[in-house]
Amino acid sequence: MSGNYSFQTKLLHNRHKFDEGTGAVSVPIQHASTFHQKEFDKFGSYDYSRSGNPTREALEEAIAELEGGTRGFAFSSGMAAISTAFLLLSKGDHVLITEDVYGGTYRMVTSVLNRFGIDHTFVDMTNLHEVALNIKDNTKLIYMETPSNPLLKVTDIQGVVKLAKANNCLTFVDNTFLTPALQRPLELGVDVVLHSATKFLSGHSDVLAGLAVTKDEELGNRLYALQNSFGAVLGVQDAWLVLRGLKTLHVRLEQSSKSAKTLADFLQKHDLVEKVYYPGLTDHPGYAVHSYQTDGPGAVLSFELKNEEAVRQFVNRVKIPVFAVSLGAVESILSYPAKMSHAAMPREERYKRGITDGLLRLSVGLESVDDLIADFTEALQAVEQSVFI
Ligand SMILES: *Cc1c(COP(=O)(O)O)cnc(C)c1O
């Protein structure tokens, strides 16, 4: 029905634009856990809410359409979506996974899957040669995250998909940082798209949710069976919150991305900033690949100050962003990977990956970019006075 509309319009005008029964312009929240069956030997569309619920289904249909897939699945968190998708694997299988994968995924692969006989190898996914070299006979899955966290490294999705298909492997992409507004991996041949909908898709730092999308019918059926078996489904109030957030996804990301680019340019010119990581900068090593496979660089960037003391001074002075883990919200969020997302990683390992004690990650929100620049300018002045004299 909405096939010809642009992404922006599809966010609002889809099958759930209004409720057929009442005309209500917001998806009804169906709390029922069970559904009356009208005939003694036939089930209706719904029987039990773990297996299917109309509110959750509205979100599942919405994300499937936006990603260009056929089936969507909503989970209680991003990690529930990711963990359930990993259950497509079996004992004896091997996973090739990007070395700068999200911390929770790292934990799942290294401390849970390994106990079930599923082996893994971490690779620099930006290096296709290294990917090809590490595919084994029992490799069944190649797992990507692009741009990656926190250094915004860019993986050539089609390059990896080509290697995967030649070796009969599935491909997953964690699309949390860009959302289908900016990157649609299924169109590039990927098998499963995963999301922490906690971030940009819902967008207001007020709900935990995860999503998965497939295009292939048989794979969709297998993932549905796993969602129903494992049971980590999204509650209906939370499904409604994600649906509500989705309506403004395009306008939020457009505004935040524009500000992120302005801030990246500002930081790159500042004497006290050693390095800026943002795929919208022409000197970013992944700039060409990113520009080719996406519709924009997104709203997350990282930048490096001289050392931990400089970070301490900066964070103590800066006023607008909240200092917290997470990203993808209406308010700007500043985080310190060395002591937050990557605190568990040994220092040498962290440094080898470029995650220094001076690195900060910024998820740009909807504040005026002039206010953000004024705030950052003042905070950087404070750094200058205390650390560099
Ligand atoms: C937050 C995040 C996750 C995990 O999602 P939760 O909703 O916190 O479980 C996975 N991948 C990425 C890239 C994330 O940022």
From TrEMBL:
Cofactor(s) for this protein? pyridoxal 5'-phosphate
**InterPro entries, sorted:** Cys/Met-Metab_PyrdxlP-dep_enz, Cys_met_metab_PP, PyrdxlP-dep_Trfase, PyrdxlP-dep_Trfase_major, PyrdxlP-dep_Trfase_small
**Is Thylakoid one of the keywords?**
no
Stretches of the chain forming a coiled coil according to its record:
none
PROSITE patterns (alphabetical)? CYS_MET_METAB_PP (PS00868)
**GO BP, one example?**
methionine biosynthetic process
Any one GO MF term held by the record is: cysteine-S-conjugate beta-lyase activity
Modified residues annotated as N6-(pyridoxal phosphate)lysine in this record: K199
**Key word Nucleotide-binding present:** no
**UniProt-listed Enzyme Commission number(s):** 4.4.1.13
Question: What enzyme category does the UniProt record give?
Answer: lyase
Which branch of life, at top level?
Bacteria
Q: Which UniProt keywords apply?
A: Amino-acid biosynthesis, Lyase, Methionine biosynthesis, Pyridoxal phosphate
Please provide, in alphabetical order, the Gene Ontology terms of the cellular component aspect for this entry: cytoplasm
> Family per UniProt?
Belongs to the trans-sulfuration enzymes family.
PANTHER family, alphabetically? CYSTATHIONINE BETA-LYASE, TRANS-SULFURATION ENZYME FAMILY MEMBER
* Protein name per its UniProtKB record: cysteine-S-conjugate beta-lyase
Lineage, uppermost ranks: Bacteria, Bacillati, Bacillota, Bacilli, Bacillales
